[in-house]
Specification:
about 170 residues; three-stranded antiparallel sheet; alpha+beta
């Protein structure tokens, strides 16, 4: 009888932990809102099309979320789900380094970026896209590591990618 009670308790704890992990994965949300087409002042990319986008990293969890992201090239932590002709435009900056960031429960961090479409011959009106955030947890990185190598490993292994809502880029 005691074995059955202990077994039942173990099963309940196991299922509650699985459910907790599943909930934790869904409580960190990436939301993309395309503002519209925009222009940049660069002769180098004059054939490209550009779209301004607001990206929100939303913590709907009941705990603080900590992660690493670059101070200037925060776009390095993001990937597009398809089409190799989509990039983030980055004008560059001084003092770019990994920074540990935290989002309090029920709060968000917002970034505004420019999506660079290199292949303007592609018809974008019928395609949907998603943006993946590469979550680099607090204990996954220290200053002695190669940050971009870690990013590339996460992409290769499809590890800890949090996908956004679907969005469209229209002409």
């Amino acid at each position: 009888m005691m074995k059955n009670i202990l077994l039942a308790i173990a099963v309940i704890i196991l299922f509650s932990q699985c459910n907790r992990r599943r909930t934790a994965n869904h409580c960190f949300v990436v939301n993309v809102d395309i503002i519209g087409e925009t222009t940049i002042s660069s002769n180098m990319h004059k054939d490209h099309r550009f779209y301004k986008a607001n990206i929100d990293l939303i913590n709907n969890c009941d705990t603080i979320i900590h992660f690493w992201i670059m101070t200037c090239s925060w776009e390095d932590n993001f990937i597009f789900n398809n089409d190799s002709f989509l990039y983030f435009y980055n004008a560059g900056c001084d003092g770019n380094f990994p920074k540990l960031v935290q989002i309090e429960p029920n709060n968000k961090i917002s970034y505004t970026g420019i999506i660079d479409i290199a292949d303007t011959s592609t018809n974008l009106n019928y395609k949907t896209y998603k943006l993946g955030f590469l979550l680099i947890k607090e204990k996954e990185y220290d200053y002695n590591d190669d940050y971009h190598l870690l990013i590339n490993e996460k992409i290769k292994n499809k590890d800890a990618i949090i996908w956004s809502n679907e969005f469209r880029l229209k002409k």
